[in-house]
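debug: dumping io for the single-chain case to check the tokenizer round-trip. Nothing else runs in this session.
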Amino acid sequence: MRLLPRSPYVAHALAVAVSWWALWTVVTYRVLGWSVVGYLPWVGSALVALNLLLLLRQFLGSPREESGLDVMVKRLDFAARMVLVAFAYWAIVAVFNAKLDRSPSVLYPAEVTDVGGRTVSAGVPLVYSWAKLRASMQEGERVVTLVLGPDEQRKFWSGESVLLTVRGGRFGLSWVAAIDRDAPAYCRKLLEVSPNAIQPWHDLVDFLFNHGGEAEATSEARRYFDLHPDDADFAYYVGENANIRGMDADSIFFLAKTVALKPTRYHSFRLAWALTRQGDARGAIDVLAVASGRYPAAWEFPFLLGYNYAKTRRYAEAAASLERVQELMPGIPEVAATLARLRARLGAN
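debug: decoded output
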């Protein structure tokens, strides 16, 4: 059974498509480990160009009598197919290694020591360059060669400080998920010159949250609020990000600051919800009681109050809170069922 099409036209067109896909893959999912990986796009572009020429030759036709050139072209075609198979298999491994990866991201500081420009034309032009970086990895300092995509090529220069976002890989092949300017280093340099500046602090905390540095992000945010204690919006941003990431203690700290500065209906509920999720029913009750008085038409506060009162065995107050919910938002089946159980318990006592 043949796995490849009999038609040379289809075979070469398929080879062009596979080569192009593999070329895009090795640029997107950059595996660490061997410097030669940094030059694999040349292999892909050569395969694409060669198969395009072979496809063009089929359209132009060849002499009926086989010449020495035809024999050489056939051997070259066979060799190219073998290389293409290996190249495609490597691309498949790189894709699954990245797509199935569940390992956490790790940031490694690095310095760009050299950037080389390269232009690869493969059907449509793909502009890329390679960069040599001196990186401080777990095993110590090492020099790595990485392909840069078109956007990254314009961002980096020799001597620049960068951060590599590295993941372990599903098959144990570490790969680079992103290369970014070392924003923390630049922000800290700005803060050394202007310690009361606001935007560098914001950028620093935002970068750390988005690149796996949650603990450092909240630590820097606390330092920021020592200098800028009235920034309610940024306090909410930090508290909500900490809440999403399951950092309950930090979330409550910043959301409490937010509510103290800007006690909106939404901010108050987010703080009460964070306290409830952490298991601090008494703290949640205190926040909800104040918020209920401030927003008497909001049904979500007595609803969550009912849950926390029931959790602390204050069943009469839980029933009163749920009765208030029924007045404000009638027709919630769960409320009616829970209220019936509470009334039965209170009647039995």
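debug: round-trip ok. The two ends are 81 Å apart (CA to CA).
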